[in-house]
Amino acid sequence: MAKKTFESALAKLEQITTELEAGELGLEKSLKKFDEGVGLIAYCNEKLEEARNQVELLQKKNGTLSAEPFTEDTSTEDSFIK
Prior knowledge:
The chain is of the alpha+beta class and about 80 residues long. Helix content is about 55%, strand content about 10%. The chain has a domain at about 5-55. The N and C termini lie far apart (about 40 Å).
């Protein structure tokens, strides 16, 4: 099995959506597909959150905005724009 990526999970989620929208699956298969979709959504949300944490944060300095790299240091947390 190929390594799961955000892109592959999203493609699978789109496939499941198409199958469910077609309305040709029975109740049990629909519920299984729905459950799989919920898991894929959770995975995608986790990956998006990880990506969000890696993006540079904008920090206000002297009345202007400048890019600052994301750090886990919570001592400067109050200075970040939220």
